[in-house]
User: Which sequence fits this backbone?
């Protein structure tokens, strides 16, 4: 869906980046950091003559190798450079053959021989994530935190044969914040600024200005890589030291302590300011003051009386839980009951005895259902308990969640103590008075039923495309946030009520969510307009209106997902059959685009939720606000916490982690074909998770001379300019029969001149701004390429002279089949028109199908036989006949070929076979 420039387009603009004093470089290293350094150096005009990285792991190449191979740069994947301390001759010879003038080593984990280090004219430079000479060694970031350093930073230094002891070229530093983690330091400073510094260092060398500052031994230190066995936290020390130890080992290898006789790893540490929340004591090894399990997490007390808050715990079997759920996780001993609670327990045991009369004695391990209880017994148990404890709020579902007597009593005790009460949803709204209303917008990550800042504390600006102004700052999720969200979704799926509740009750909650969306539809449409640039009336009707319809449609499916009985070979004397049952998959990930932010969320998530799955959703980085408002409404609708999690952030970080995460069972993606391919590969390599992809398009629209011209002009314009052309099924190329071509173009241009371009909140506006500036720039470049290739620009092709990201509706004619704009999607308001000879049905079909995409298509003709013939032969998932852009929640939607696979909407959502969906109006 998202248009990306091809290599042909990039060639038009690349020459301006080349300046004097450029070097031939060898890049030796790995990781995403290495890939970014490589890409940045090439953009600056340096020639990378070879990339030396690590071999593929589990069939997956390192990101540095992926980028270099895509560019055609020579890539070498050596498992090692030395054997028993001696360089491998054939490896060194392969390196020397590339003729590098400088080795650039970003995060190189291999031992490189000095014959390679010293080979180039300018030697070798290395990035190191510490302010050398402090923390020489591979775990520098960890030790920066463990030691409680107030400053962190990095060094680019000249390589030598010592342990990070070579002369310094440049250094950068930043303050360490009180709750910084390895991830937050890396993402906030060490990663982005480190890339810039590597590029700067190379240019200093090229210009002959690079210093060589000898490292002093004063203040030098070397700490090795920390092992799990050495990472046990000493709780008998001040709180800040405890906090530093935990955050310095998060995520690898993980600081641990002993709780309940087993090793438990602690993650997500922060200093606790203010009053300590109410909680339940937890005995810990090696301390005099017990910890405290609270709704916010596990509180640990230092010897100085100050406290540390730990968010997550991981047990020896690998299971991770929120620390706040320790006593309900099944991993701990029973809650100790006071005298009054023991009397209640005796009364409850008598109730169990009365119902389970066949059981000799009620033990802690007695299971209510395994002992023979049925659904009516559940009702009886709940009602009898309410008589004994009239103030308790107990539901039938609670019995299903705690089936043993001990588990049931634990649940009752927590209810009696008030520990089960849901936290009030706290939202730090950003408010704006706009469109004759006050809109209230959440702007934080939504994880496990709560709005919270990203783990790193990092935020970014989301921009109003109408004028380029900042709407608000939004949390920028990290890999750690993804892991927490997936853990919450998995917990909600494995142990929460969502998958266990009656499907009809689940449908009721989705209906309630749809009702709340309808109550807030004007607010949602206003937010959508500000964040995406959609014309308000279209946002109200389609972006929001169809989202509401989608949730209502799939709410009705909740109790209609059925299996089958299948007769099989009758082997006498038995008569055999099999039956199938449709079950949810588990945790699903959804990555949505920026053109229809709320509607794509609805299309992907409604069916997912109806089936009983839980989800983690990443909205597009440039349009996160309606997704976060949706999260708020879902909580108010009563969707259990953990079922829906929303993570704004980058695709490269959040989206990539979702595609790789082993606990996710399916990923749905709408976006560009190249990114779709990368996601599919990551999903396959990680855990073979299922994938559905709705990708790029270059949808053909064929207009025959016997069409209804009024309708063809009106619908033809809509096929291109609907939603500013930011439409996955937009007609990427129109084929107009020669005899009506000039008339059609003339009428289209007349109608374009009548279109009002302006404020999308103005009810009379026809055409709003493009979604973001980078996209507008690509569209303008797309038009420049069309002109250079010889197409005729009939109208538009320019940015509108006003603030914001507005582009003129554009029309190209005389577009030949070989041209870039004939083959590549613009994803904007660009009408690309080609003639075809009168009566040449077969010829125009060949041209229309000569594309790797197959999302949608259309035909205009009064001849029903021609319409059916053409629609059957167009290779696309949807064929519009005498109409365009008409989709419905009950009609399946998806593509052929490189437009992806899998279906959104309709009953076909649960199938993946290719299917063409003709959408027609009466032919006249």
Assistant:
């Amino acid at each position: 869906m998202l248009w990306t420039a091809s290599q042909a387009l990039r060639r038009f603009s690349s020459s301006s980046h080349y300046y004097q004093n450029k070097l031939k470089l060898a890049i030796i290293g790995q990781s995403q950091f290495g890939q970014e350094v490589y890409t940045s150096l090439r953009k600056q005009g340096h020639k990378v003559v070879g990339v030396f990285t690590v071999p593929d792991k589990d069939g997956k190449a390192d990101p540095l190798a992926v980028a270099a191979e895509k560019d055609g740069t020579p890539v070498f994947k050596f498992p090692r450079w030395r054997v028993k301390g001696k360089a491998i001759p054939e490896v060194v010879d392969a390196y020397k053959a590339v003729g590098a003038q400088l080795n650039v080593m970003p995060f190189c984990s291999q031992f490189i021989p000095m014959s390679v280090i010293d080979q180039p004219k300018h030697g070798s430079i290395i990035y190191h994530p510490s302010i050398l000479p402090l923390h020489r060694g591979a775990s520098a970031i960890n030790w920066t935190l463990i030691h409680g350093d107030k400053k962190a930073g990095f060094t680019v230094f000249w390589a030598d044969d010592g342990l990070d002891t070579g002369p310094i070229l440049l250094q950068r530093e930043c303050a360490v914040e009180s709750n910084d983690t390895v991830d937050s330091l890396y993402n906030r400073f060490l990663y982005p600024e480190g890339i810039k510094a590597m590029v700067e260092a190379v240019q200093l060398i090229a210009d002959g200005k690079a210093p060589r500052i000898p490292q002093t031994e004063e203040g030098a230190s070397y700490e090795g890589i920390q092992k799990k066995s050495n990472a046990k936290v000493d709780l008998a020390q001040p709180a800040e030291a405890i906090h530093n130890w935990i955050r310095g080992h998060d995520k690898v290898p993980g600081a641990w302590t002993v709780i309940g006789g087993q090793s438990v790893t602690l993650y997500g540490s922060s200093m606790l300011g203010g009053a300590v929340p109410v909680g339940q004591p937890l005995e810990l090894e090696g301390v005099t003051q017990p910890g405290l399990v609270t709704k916010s997490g596990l509180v640990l007390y230092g010897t100085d009386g100050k406290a540390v808050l730990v968010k997550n715990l991981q047990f020896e079997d690998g299971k991770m839980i929120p620390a706040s759920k320790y006593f309900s996780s099944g991993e701990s001993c029973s809650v100790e009951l006071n005298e009054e609670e023991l009397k209640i327990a005796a009364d409850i045991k008598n109730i169990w005895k009365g119902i389970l009369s066949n059981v000799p004695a009620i033990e802690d391990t007695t299971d209510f259902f395994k002992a023979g209880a049925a659904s009516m017994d559940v009702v009886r148990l709940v009602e009898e308990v309410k008589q004994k404890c009239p103030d308790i709020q107990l539901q039938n579902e609670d019995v299903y969640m705690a089936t043993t007597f001990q588990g049931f009593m634990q649940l009752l005790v927590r209810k009696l103590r008030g520990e089960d009460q849901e936290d009030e949803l706290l939202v730090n709204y950003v408010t704006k008075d706009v469109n004759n209303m006050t809109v209230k917008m959440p702007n934080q990550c939504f994880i496990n039923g709560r709005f919270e800042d990203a783990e790193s504390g990092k935020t970014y600006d989301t921009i109003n495309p109408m004028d380029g102004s900042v709407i608000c700052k939004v949390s920028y999720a990290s890999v750690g946030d993804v892991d927490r969200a997936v853990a919450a979704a998995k917990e909600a799926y494995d142990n929460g009520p969502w998958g266990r509740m009656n499907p009809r009750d689940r449908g009721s909650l989705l209906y309630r969510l749809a009702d709340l969306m309808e109550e807030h539809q004007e607010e949602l449409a206003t937010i959508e307009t500000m964040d995406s640039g959609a014309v308000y009336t279209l946002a109200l009707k389609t972006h929001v209106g169809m989202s509401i319809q989608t949730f209502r449609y799939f709410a009705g499916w909740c109790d209609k997902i059925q299996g089958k009985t299948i007769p099989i070979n009758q082997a006498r004397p038995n008569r055999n059959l099999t039956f199938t049952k449709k079950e949810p998959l588990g945790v699903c990930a959804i990555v949505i685009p920026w053109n229809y932010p709320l509607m794509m969320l609805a299309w992907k998530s409604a069916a997912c939720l109806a089936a009983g799955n839980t989800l983690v959703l990443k909205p597009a980085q440039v349009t996160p606000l309606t997704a976060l408002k949706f999260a708020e409404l879902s909580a108010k609708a009563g969707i259990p916490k953990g079922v829906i999690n929303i993570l704004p952030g980058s695709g490269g970080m959040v989206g990539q982690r979702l595609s790789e995460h082993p606990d996710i069972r399916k990923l749905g993606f709408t976006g560009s074909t190249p990114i779709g391919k990368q996601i599919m590969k990551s999903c396959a390599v990680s855990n073979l998770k299922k994938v559905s992809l709705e990708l790029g398009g270059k949808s053909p629209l064929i207009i025959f001379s016997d069409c209804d011209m009024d309708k063809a002009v009106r619908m033809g314009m809509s096929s291109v300019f609907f939603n500013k052309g930011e439409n996955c099924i937009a007609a990427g190329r129109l084929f107009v029969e020669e005899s009506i071509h000039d008339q059609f173009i003339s009428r289209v241009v007349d109608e374009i001149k009548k279109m009002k371009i302006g404020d999308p909140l103005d009810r009379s506006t026809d055409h709003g701004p493009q979604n973001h500036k980078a996209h507008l720039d690509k569209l303008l470049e797309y038009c420049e390429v069309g002109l250079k290739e010889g197409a005729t620009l009939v109208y538009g092709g320019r940015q509108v002279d006003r603030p914001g990201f507005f582009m003129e509706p554009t029309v190209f004619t005389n577009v030949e089949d070989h041209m870039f704009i004939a083959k590549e999607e613009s994803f904007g308001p660009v009408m690309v028109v080609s003639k075809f000879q009168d009566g040449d049905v077969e010829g125009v079909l060949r041209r229309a199908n000569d594309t790797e995409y197959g999302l949608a298509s259309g035909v205009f003709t009064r001849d029903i036989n021609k319409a059916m013939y053409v629609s059957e032969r167009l290779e696309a998932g949807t064929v519009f006949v005498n109409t365009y852009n008409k989709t419905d929640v009950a009609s399946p939607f998806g593509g052929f070929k490189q437009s992806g696979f899998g279906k959104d909407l309709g009953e076909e959502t649960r199938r993946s076979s290719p299917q063409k969906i003709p959408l027609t109006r009466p032919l006249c």
